[in-house]
Design brief:
single chain; 215 residues; alpha/beta; 8 strands; 16% strand
Length: 215
């Protein structure tokens, strides 16, 4: 049987990762958080004092980096970094790393290779438009910046991170601008993607909307 590929795209904080993880469990397929790959590269840059604005240095480091997904864990050079990649510092810098064309080429190669091995659900910014344009199902999740910021704020404060709600919302808006305006493979809704506005909706509601389309 042909591997099933499901793409879930959308801006930061729209609920992509949460929904994709649940769908993966429901359908017993592999979940790949593509954004986590760029976060892992960003984390390594920060750990090695690499200037994010120095594209050549970021590209060189990315080429020397091994990233993999196993059992819903992201590995950076053999080490699980699930928590480390969610820091405020990584979050504030990841869009600038992700917009580098050569870094995206490297990560997309890994994503496509994983997608050819197994049935997968992937979430990101350009899965349906660029990484897997022939995906079996494509979804594009949206929500207002205020809603997305509130979700991120709740996540962070529950982890004990001291942050202001407005700062989180402002960061979301800034990331939207960077992700949407980057030259190569920007955040964009694929023409054949199903758009779901998650504003004010429960996780269960959104999951059911997706599953109803697939089943």
């Amino acid at each position: 049987m042909k591997n099933l590929v499901i793409a879930i795209d959308g801006p930061a904080g729209a609920g992509k990762s949460t929904i994709a993880k649940i769908i993966a469990k429901e359908l017993n397929i592999n979940y790949i958080d593509t954004g986590a790959m760029y976060r892992a590269v960003t984390l390594k840059c920060l750990q090695n004092n690499i200037n994010i604005e120095d594209e050549a240095a970021v590209i060189k480091l990315a080429k020397e980096t091994e990233i993999d997904f196993r059992d819903n864990n992201i590995y950076l050079d053999g080490n699980i970094v699930n928590e480390e990649i969610r820091s405020i510092e990584v979050t504030s810098n990841v869009s600038n790393v992700a917009k580098i064309k050569e870094v995206r080429y490297l990560m997309v190669d890994v994503q496509r290779e994983i997608g050819t091995r197994n049935s997968v659900i992937l979430d990101g910014r350009d899965i349906g438009s660029y990484v897997f344009p022939n995906a079996d199902y494509k979804f594009f999740l949206i929500a207002t910046p205020e809603e997305r910021g509130s979700r991120r704020y709740k996540e962070l404060t529950e982890k004990g991170v001291q942050v202001k709600l407005q700062d989180v919302i402002d960061d979301i808006i800034k990331r939207d601008e960077i992700d949407s305006s980057r030259e190569f493979a920007p955040l964009v809704k694929a023409e054949d993607a199903i758009e779901i506005d998650t504003t004010g909706k429960s996780i269960e509601d959104v999951v059911n909307s997706v599953l109803n389309r697939i089943k």
